[in-house]
Design goal:
It comes from Glycomyces albidus. Belongs to the stealth family. The protein is α/β, with parallel strands linked by helices and 574 residues long. Among the domains are: 45 residues; 300 residues, Alpha-Beta Complex (Spore Coat Polysaccharide Biosynthesis Protein SpsA, Chain A), CATH 3.90.550. It contains 18 helices and 26 strands. Strands 3, 4, 5, 6, 7, 10, 11 and 12 form an eight-stranded mixed β-sheet that branches. A five-stranded mixed β-sheet has the order 17-16-15-18-23. Strand 13 and strand 14 form a beta hairpin. The longest helix is centred in the N-terminal third of the chain and has 26 residues.
């Protein structure tokens, strides 16, 4: 101890307060606080071998190595840690219907905020739970309980996010602050209406009512999907189930909303094992001397397998729990890692869906796509995917369909070009031009745009309608053993434009990372995607394969996918 019985740290603070200007004092004190927090972080890591330091989308963090990961599971775990603290303090809480597709929101009365934060400190004060303040998607302040006192900006926030960080086997961040549980502190209506700047604050409330009607109501700190003002008569106790457990809420917060999608949505993959010797021999036999003719329409690289399907299914399991059933359409092949006994997946042979089996075998995705809607038991709304497509973030059915069944189309800024089909046109361009030639006479509309490489929403009744209306073009494409300049693109170009022109689809929005895996910049791009995890979808495509680089590219792709999706899905064999 020094001086007046102070510790060395306290003596430094005392000296700082006496001799330094205020701005300098602030910086020095922040430095001391930072040193103390760093020391506590080191102690926490040393005491618990299950914890590691990592770099996440919102900065450096300490997280725990996970044994499994789904977005829903991570969000539910953070909900439980918040609820445990509220229940330990004997506080009434309620679930609020937030806007996030995965994150849970808990409401507490503002009067209970102090007791709740004390309970959180008591339960998690020496641990790895984070508390953070967000403005939209941007983290503006955060702190970990083990570091000491939470930042004032966090404690003063009207909404605080709490989370444990989940790490993968390599120490990569899988579940960061974006999967935390938001706690909203709701004010009494009388207090809200009595504010001097009530008129200004009222502009931020979605439910506009006279000041007198706030009596007895609770007012939320931000909008939600139902109402941010809860009158006393609306606070009828109810429950909502999350992960098999019921949590308290209020009856209006349990209603099925007008924009909720409640119809089943399936997923359909077209897959081929290009390494299968029997399949490759059959393809070569039918291709014969026409290899050069078909090269520009898609060569052997289209069939190269790097186990992308396995990781795409992992992405589905992690981020798209709304999918009811998965269908994998193949030419009599089955991935050796696939658990065909799982009741959530079905392997479908081409022979089961082709209207005329004599058209088989076919080696063109254009042909196969014309028959997918024939799958027995397929939902009327479904997604069609290639195995090089991956979900990168939590998703929901509302991203692809509106509640009234209308599809949301992933338009691309890329265009198919003008003029008639030319021999040198790429397959997407020639197939798009052929679709344009079908639709323009019927609708007087000139289509120009392509679609992004993301899961494509499909309306099964529309596809049956197209099969009849444009029977000759559909039948001819179904019989194209290999891609042909006369093909139509059925599942995207024709389905999407026709659905929009007949009032059953509208433009949607999506964030896609598209990576040409043979591009020299691909390693850097993949590293950025892995670090940020900010894309709803990503596509790992190959524009111009370089055979001598295949081993290098295969290792790069497998390494990236294993880091992004390190845990097996239920669709894989044990």
């Amino acid at each position: 101890m020094t001086g007046e019985g102070r510790s060395p740290r306290a003596a430094v603070r005392h000296a700082v307060g006496r001799v330094l200007p205020a701005p300098v004092r602030k910086r020095v004190r922040e430095g001391l606080d930072g040193a103390r927090a760093a020391k506590r972080r080191r102690a926490l890591l040393a005491a618990d071998p299950g914890l590691r330091a990592a770099e996440g989308p919102h900065g450096a963090v300490i997280g725990r190595i996970a044994e499994d990961f789904t977005a829903a599971g991570a969000a539910e775990a953070n909900l439980r840690l918040v609820v445990a603290a509220a229940e330990a303090a004997g506080l009434e809480y309620f679930l609020v219907p937030g806007h996030s597709p995965v994150r849970h929101v808990v409401g507490l009365r503002k009067a209970d905020k102090k007791a709740f934060l004390e309970s959180m400190r008591e339960r998690y004060g020496d641990g790895d739970v984070y508390a953070a303040r967000f403005s939209g998607e941007r983290c503006t302040a955060r702190g970990m309980y083990a570091e000491g006192a939470l930042p004032t900006a966090v404690k003063n926030a009207q909404t605080i996010r709490f989370a444990r960080i989940g790490l993968g086997p390599q120490g990569q961040v899988l579940a960061g602050l974006d999967y935390g549980c938001d706690v909203e502190f709701w004010r009494d209506g009388e207090e809200f209406a009595a504010q001097p700047d009530f008129d200004r604050k009222l502009d931020r409330v979605r439910v506009r009512i006279p000041a007198a009607m706030f009596a007895g109501a609770w007012v939320g700190p931000r909008p939600n999907r139902v109402a941010d003002v809860l009158p006393a008569e609306a606070r009828v106790p109810a429950h909502r189930e999350v992960g098999g457990r019921e949590y308290p809420t209020f009856e209006p917060f349990t209603r099925k909303l007008a924009d909720d999608v409640d119809f089943p949505v399936d997923a359909v993959y077209m897959w081929v094992d290009g390494d299968d010797p029997a399949w490759a021999a059959e393809r070569a036999r039918y291709l014969g001397g026409d290899a050069a003719e078909h090269a520009h329409l898609g060569g052997a690289s289209r069939y190269t397998s790097r186990d992308e399907l396995k990781y795409s299914l992992r992405s589905l399991h992690a981020f798209a729990p709304f999918i009811r059933h998965v269908y994998i359409v193949t030419a009599g092949q089955t991935p050796d890692w696939l658990d065909t006994g799982h009741d959530g997946v079905t392997v479908v042979d081409h022979a089961e869906i082709f209207a005329d089996p004599s058209a088989l075998p076919v080696f063109s995705s254009h042909a196969i796509a014309t028959q997918l809607h024939h799958i027995e038991g397929l939902s009327d709304h479904y997604l069609v995917l290639n195995d090089d497509l991956f979900f990168g973030q939590p998703s929901q059915a509302e991203r692809f369909f509106h509640a009234n069944g209308i599809a949301q189309l992933p338009f691309s800024p890329l265009q198919i070009g003008l003029g008639a089909v030319r021999p040198e046109d790429s397959a997407p361009n020639s197939a798009g031009k052929n679709v344009r030639a079908l639709l323009e006479p019927d609708f007087g509309r000139f289509i120009t745009r392509k679609f992004k490489h993301i899961p494509h929403p499909q309306l099964r009744p529309v596809l049956y309608e197209l099969e009849k209306r444009y029977a000759d073009a559909v039948d001819a494409t179904s019989r194209s053993r290999f891609r042909d300049p006369r093909d139509i693109e059925f599942a995207a170009m024709l389905h999407h434009h026709y659905a929009m022109l007949t009032g059953r689809a509208v433009p949607g929005r999506s964030k896609l990372h598209y990576v040409d895996i043979y591009d020299p910049a691909a390693p850097e791009r993949l590293a950025g995607i892995l670090a940020a995890r900010d894309g709803e979808f990503f596509c790992l495509n190959e524009v111009e394969p370089v055979p001598e680089r295949e081993a290098e590219v295969r290792a790069m792709v497998r390494g990236f996918l294993e880091a992004y999706f390190p845990f097996p899905s239920p669709y894989e064999r044990s």
